Amino acid sequence: MTIAPAAADATTDLVVTDPVDGTVASTVPRASEPEVRDAVARARAAAGPWARTAPAERGALLRAAAEHVRAHAQELADLNTRETGKVPGDALGGVEAGVGTLVQYAELGPVHRGEALRGQFGAADWAVPHPRGVVLALTPWNDPVAVACGILGAAIVTGNTVVHKGSERSPATIARLNALLAEVLPDGVLVGVDGDGSTGELLLAQDGIDVYAHVGSTATGDRLSEVAVATRAHVVRENGGNDAVVVDADVDPEWAAAQVALGAFANTGQICTSVERVYVHRDVAEPFVAALVAEAERRTAAPADTYGPLVDERLRSTVQSHVDDAVQRGATARTGGVTPDGVGTFYPATVLTGCTDEMLVMTEETFGPIAPVRVVDDFDEGLRLAAADRYGLAATVLTNDTGHALRAAAELPVGTVKVNAVFGGAPGGSAQPRGASGAGFGYGPHLLDELTTTTVVHLEPAPARTTGGTK
């Protein structure tokens, strides 16, 4: 792995440009087909011994690996910033979050226990968890270390081995993370594979993979589910989202605007659970929009180390096409909405008003700093529109009405309902996305269950052997 090399082989190397200035940020060799086969074979060979390793020992090794990553946190953060444009503070925070997740799983794994079952008198029944085997982990670029550590930590501590391919948009960051973890773990427990979509297809063609664990696009998640029909691999996937916010009539509009701005513009809108749709009650719509525009303009004018670029030109073109579609259909860009001149892939924080249901900004995941606003007549209308979507990742309601909050929790078909905070949650929380957003528990303690199988044991005493004759 080299940073800013003099030359690269376009047929074999992954070359990433810095989204701030367009220079070469990293070059990483793409794995060949023999290297892909070898990676899966190494993980398969290590699976048996690792499964038989005591859970406490697995936990201790994972904790040591976490501390090794912590010692290189700034290095990983710098790689992340160069490759994706993630602002330095957020990049370092993502690495620290990843370390914390590894430590959490190091503690949870050894106490991930079976269950005693109540059966008949004189017999015993219990359920025992077992590793599934080899996990293929496919992870994204938008918070590469934090997201990857969740899947890797849960898989490894439960006795699985892992073949890990990160996104081709952050290959150097993931290659370094894989190397750091592998320096502590036994050989074959974690094997990194660098590559793009074609490399992913090569991995799917390999025998001996028991789980596909994926965080990323819905299209890739659908592809994994399609392949799993034939391979019978278990699939855990957290995919795209089109998360809604419903702003009720009884909240402070400036506070609500700050919440929505955080959800829509943090990491330049490049978060799976970013705010993608805004439904605001008519009674507070005017001051809310004014405050939201002010929040957007403040972020756009912020220094580059506070408000960063989009990851690449392809994503920026998609974001602009969604904005153009909305404007052509009658929406108004109250601020932003135009691709700026100059180097890099910056895009302004944008507020759209007059949005309607058929616009791409309301029906698709834009994954950029866009806050499309639709005014609703009452909370019922906002809740109904928020629920009417093919995605089912998360949603937020901002309200002082406890009854409205309880209705949202009961009626929104999403994995996470947040009340009065667009981000946040207890450590170890789990969520189960719905619809086009995926399936299975993607993090938290429940991920340990996803990555294990359960054997139910029933034990009865056998009658004593007789030797013949009578006593």
TrEMBL record:
Pfam families: Aldedh. Keywords: Oxidoreductase. Gene3D superfamilies: Aldehyde Dehydrogenase, Chain A, domain 1 (3.40.605.10), Aldehyde Dehydrogenase, Chain A, domain 2 (3.40.309.10). Residues 12-456 form the Aldehyde dehydrogenase domain. This is Aldehyde dehydrogenase family protein. It comes from Curtobacterium citreum. The lineage of its organism: Bacteria, Bacillati, Actinomycetota, Actinomycetes, Micrococcales.
